[in-house]
């Protein structure tokens, strides 16, 4: 009799041990020193601006060996790798032939040079072959005195049937012209799954091509990323006239030009500068406002859409402005801030379809990226993207987006979890990384500082138009357009050049580290573990418990309740957070 009575007690302790081990598996990555979002929301922090850091925001000259053309004839240059929508495919892109700029340009014929890639898992021999397509683009101006531009031949070749997490070697070019590149290599993404992630993902924005940019990229390379996300504003070619004269502020220096000119060779300089990185590490790009580059017939974003390969078709998109892809257990959504984002528009309908197709059991992490931030507290571009937020935030929130990356503001800022300007444990963490090093220098003033709150009528995006930024209706800033102190949704902000590294550890934890250029590459300016929603974690634990109970085929309801109680107690021992515990009890009550 006593032996029978001891059975529930044994099962209680056994369940406590098993569930504790299951729970600790998700948290084993935490080192005891780095904070997590579960510790938040955090009190706002502003790091004082260091005036000495405003130097070196000077563009690399065309004489710098890193941007000069070294290729001969039709040898490939500006080689890059881009991911497709899934691990088994990538794009290889490159340029052959020289660009022309002047009044009497003669575009090259793309049909005269083949788009050919040899590749394989061994350096010798390269046993697989693939062909693709090629194009040229022009930047034309219908005004006397302005110089026109025509690109070299741009090639895009898609490789398919690749294995996950595998190193591949490749050469690209046209073998019939003895114009093949040297051998490069890239590594495919891991297979999509809840335990499979790229080790490091670099996130950078508003790069340009300055001496600060070179410092950013040097630090980024030292961190050995498996993937690079560039959240818009690539070359800043539109800070130049067509004759090559540049300025830190185009509108200040060139207010009388008949059209906003650009100096397209800066794109070629940038492609050459970046080749040592992006010829082996895939880069995924989304457009920024500096890629607009208006020309004849009101054509825009032509260089951006021509030079990069995008997995648009593979992800069901009809545009280079928005697309999605998987990187292991992460689903990335790249959204266009400079194309219609209204709820009746094609981008919104595509986003609805894409989100509905995400299987969080396969890709637990959902990360969204676009250029202009929704939750920046800097004076520059303050609430500029409000119309995009009004249209899209609810949809992204309803699907549980975990992290949002943006640029545009030339500084760094990380939010607490936020939704509709309110602290919300189910909202995403918004991170602004527009501090890549561009010529326009850093943003340093904040809208909440005395005298810095902008006139609401000056804030709408000049490209997209519309006015959606009204005074706040609730909270400490109710009735005002700006807070009078650093908003509670802003956790950390600092004006320094740098880049970020995202390391997803498992389905629950991701380590975010922001590196400042002035520090050693292995130092952290800001670091936090971003934890996927606590209620999601509890649902997962509860689900495991339910399956375990079914496998034991326990018939006695009392025993089941004891085991459930043991699981709850085990988790309580690990983390005693009142709000978290109430959620745990609620979840387990629903099961039992």
TrEMBL record:
InterPro entries in alphabetical order: Calcineurin-like_PHP, Metallo-depent_PP-like, MPP_PAP, PAPs-like, PAPs_C, PAPs_N, Purple_acid_Pase-like_N
Annotated signal peptide: 1-32
Entry annotated with the keyword RNA-binding: no
Highest taxon in the source lineage: Eukaryota
Cofactor(s) of this protein: Zn(2+)
Catalytic EC class: hydrolase
GO terms assigned for molecular function: acid phosphatase activity; metal ion binding
Pfam families linked to this entry: Metallophos, Metallophos_C, Pur_ac_phosph_N
Domain Purple acid phosphatase C-terminal span(s) in chain numbering: 481-519
Purple acid phosphatase N-terminal domain sequence ranges: 76-188
Alphabetically ordered keywords of this record: Glycoprotein, Hydrolase, Iron, Metal-binding, Secreted, Signal, Zinc
Catalytic activity annotation: a phosphate monoester + H2O = an alcohol + phosphate
Record-level GO cellular component terms: extracellular region
Localization of this protein: Secreted
Domain Calcineurin-like phosphoesterase: 200-412
SUPFAM superfamilies membership: Metallo-dependent phosphatases, Purple acid phosphatase, N-terminal domain
Keyword Calcium included in the entry's annotation: no
Quaternary assembly: Homodimer.
Family stated for the protein in its record: Belongs to the metallophosphoesterase superfamily. Purple acid phosphatase family.
The protein, known as: Purple acid phosphatase
